[in-house]
Amino acid sequence: MQPILRLEGVNKSFGGVTAAKDVSFSVPPGEVQGLIGPNGAGKSTLMNIISGIYTPDSGKVFLEEKDITKVAAYTRARMGIGRTFQTPRFMQRSSIRDNLLLGTDLADQIGYLKGFFGKKGKPFDEELEELMEVAKFTFRWTDKIDSLPFGQRKLLEIVRSMLGHPKVMLVDEPAAGLNHKEIEHAMDLLNMAAKQRGIGVLLIEHSMDMIMDMCSNIVVINFGEVIGQGSPEEVSSNKAVIDAYLGGDLDD
Amino acid sequence: MSLQLFSTLFINGLAMGVVYAMLAMGLILLIRAVGILNFAQGEMFMFGAYISAALILDFHLPFFAMIPVAMISFIIVGLIFMFTIYWPLRKASYAATTIIATMGAAIVLRELAVLIWGAMPRSMPPLMQTPEGGAAILNIGGTPLPWQFVLIIIVGAALMLLIYLLFEKLYIGKLMQAACQNSYAANLIGIPTILTIAATYSIVSILVSVGGYMVSPIFTVNNTLGTMQLQAFAGVVIGGFGNIKGAIIGSLLVGLIEVFSTINFSAYRDVSVFLVLIVVLLLRPQGLFGEKIADKA
Amino acid sequence: MTLKNLATPKNIIGIIAIIAFVVIVPQVVQGFAMTIINVALLFAIISYGVSIMLGMGGQLSFAAVTFMGFGAYFIANMSTGRLGFVIPTFLALLLTPIVFAGVAFLIGLVLLKLKGTYFTFSTIALVQVAFTYFNNFQPLFGGPDGISGIPTLTIGSYSFGNDLTAWFYLICVFVIIGGIIVERIRRSQLGRSLASIRDNETAALTLGVNTYLTKVIAFSIAGAFAAFAGALWVMHGRFVGAEMFNFLNATQFIIMAMIGGVNSTVGIVIGALLVRGLPEFFRGFQGYMNLFWGVSIILLMVFMPTGLAGIKDVIVDKFRQFRVKSRKGDDDDATNTKA
Fold first, then answer.
1. Segments making up each domain of chain C, as ranges
2. Who wins on pLDDT, B32 or C111?
3. Which of the residues A205, B162, B262, B292 has the least number of beta carbons within 10 Å of its own beta carbon?
4. C286 pLDDT exceeds 70?
């Protein structure tokens, strides 16, 4: 199957510190791909390289086999790379409604002028209801975003990303700071994204339960280098991986 | 240009540069300590000039009695400033809120000066006087240099060096900086943040007030002295934000550019400074001496 | 949004208040006081630009005063025949926002390459450079004497002349149109994109917002607002001098917006009326007025950081703090937005 996202020999260093060294892997559509590694292994750096916040020193990034290494971050988002952050990043002084509309703006791409003169995008209430059904919580449109508890904001960030209709979703530690129930709902959302919508999900996570449960394929990195890759079984029996996790800090 | 004219202009520009550098250094110290861009810096400078004028012209204090009294007054002004403008706003979520508050403080200081000392500019005696009471001139190889300019350079440079050493080289200064930037760490070492911040405000107040005092014999004491902070802003940006050395060199450059551009187009001297500023911003946003800002997500 | 949605009690009260203001003010105010109100309302239009740049986009720009100057000098040159030709005042007025939206766009392209405080500094530089030219360059700006004898606004055969009440109605129309434009922007994709830039630029990028271009567009709109108000201002006062466009006055528009509430359109109009009106109202205490004024700015920022429009929020927040003692926050993001 043709991968939807592919990294080819990506290198990045910050003033002598290597954050990514010759990293190559790919994300197939409709699957959840895990990206794991000890703290500081370079996972978030890779996320930033894929979404275009950093430019790699060398190497290439492909979206649907199109070279996007030199494409600006916002264009990549419009081309279909969605992402969430470790701590959810919302417009803190705006309502939930406005925050979610930002996701649909991305899907609709109406433009400022047409938007100003009242052109509206496709109605998304139905889609939102469907997503909120999975996320298992309700809210009032007009509430301020920071009136929601942390866990619900993290779920809502996944929802916002899905409203943007991405082809690939980069999800950074969705389980951190969530309670047991919320983790389940996050998993439901991500499974829905992959299985029902065919989105390629790249999942960074420290919770091994979640990774083992959801991922068909896992990439393990340490010190910016890919040290193992394969199915959950393969990875968990890989010696280099075990060393990295046992030798380094034990996150889980 | 004759060498004589050049030297006179150079000393003049350097002196103004030192004055801007004092303002700029104060700005950086505050930005580092509390993260606030102080739009009332120029007015603190002006207020310093007024206080000195009052001590000399109204209370007729002899020079050596005036210095300690002036220092204590400057510290008091700095502390009042801190407890009214910074302290209540230290947790404000909008950065613009604190900036506007410092603009309000600028108005207050300007008006207070007029209310207390009147709207008429006050002329200050120069530090070095001729027997007739005029400004003394230093003559070096046939080049006349006004003593006041020379003194500004000496006093300003000495004061800045002292503060620089305190903050950058001495253990206590480093500790203070660390405490200001990280209240958690400060509490671990056991320094109350409020003390270190109060110390910073006092030092900044002394620094800029002395600048105001030194410059007042040249421009008279009036309530527009504060506009010099714009040149200091320019110096900070040209030199590099958050970098004391850079800000000082940048400010010196501003002083020199200003003076030398008066030769050809006197009305447009501001233009040359600020055009240099815009060009620097575009070519090297981190400033001439700033480090490249790490690209950080 | 349908008409039905608009007919909320809050909106109805608002509309009644606006109508009452427009009807009552000319009945009770004349002469010099009317000039003050007219100018205050013109300044509110300029502060709308601050609302777009600072309130929505989080970008502190001092450039408004310079674009006001551009608009004013543009009219002065177009309508007095100083350049050897004359354009009808109404046409010149309509041209102003278009021309200076373009100029602001170009300047914005340059200045907004810089971020945060660097950008703010570059706008200070712009204000200083422009002020020096306004004050010295004779051919276009009349030098230190300024330009006087500027014709009043004439639409068709109707001339506004010195009829302050007629001016008041005209300015009210523009304040309302401007307010509607600002509200539309706030509720459309542009407003949301700006807000996302304000709160987290990285997140905005990953949501497909072209942050650079969006900021330039906002700068351009703010410039158009300021230039348009400057054009009206000069035809209302019939004189333009450089003094108006110095850095001190640049801060005035920021203060107006912050006092009223940088994200509240109505708040901005009230802020402008207060900033311009109060000092005149207390003219008897002139000496103490500015002092009082500075102190109130500080007090307002301390106790109502979101301006007068934020009174409700402040109360609600206090109440909420009371209820929710601690909640897991995201401090790393909060630091990003602080300059």
1. 34-337
2. C111
3. B292
4. no
Q: Domain residues of chain A, as ranges?
A: 5-92+168-247
Please check the confidence at residue A250 and state whether its pLDDT lies above 50: no
Task: Kindly tell me the sign of the dihedral angle through the C-alpha atoms of B156, B159, B164, B167.
Answer: negative
**Band of pLDDT at residue B250, cut at 50, 70 and 90:** very high
Q: Over the stretch B66-107, which tens digit does the pLDDT of each residue have?
A: 999 999 999 999 999 999 988 888 877 677 788 889 989 998
Q: CB of B288 within 8 Å of any CB in chain C?
A: no
Note the pTM of the prediction, 2 decimals. 0.85
> Is pLDDT above 60 for C335?
no
CB contact under 8 A, C333 and A83: no
Does B294 contact A48 at a Cβ distance shorter than 8 Å? no
Contacts of C211 in chain A (CB under 8 A): 74
Which amino acid does the sequence have at A101?
L
What is the ipTM score, two decimals? 0.88
* Cβ–Cβ gap C294/B111 under 8 Å: yes
Cβ of A98 within 8 Å of Cβ of C188? The answer is no
Q: What structural domains and CATH numbers belong to chain B?
A: 3-128+140-283 (1.10.3470)
For residues B57-67, b (16+ Cβ closer than 10 Å) or e, as one string?
eeeebeeeebe
Q: Which of A77, A92, A150 is opposite residue C208, by nearest beta carbon?
A: A77
Sheet with A17-27, strands from edge to edge, namely A17-27, A5-14, A58-63, A66-67
- Residue C1's CB is within 10 A of a number of other CB atoms, namely 8
Measure in Å the smallest separation between the Cα of B225 and chain C Cα atoms. Answer: 13
Select from C111, C118, C290 the Cβ nearest to the Cβ of B111.
Answer: C290
CATH class of A5-92+168-247: alpha beta
Q: Which amino acid is at C241?
A: G
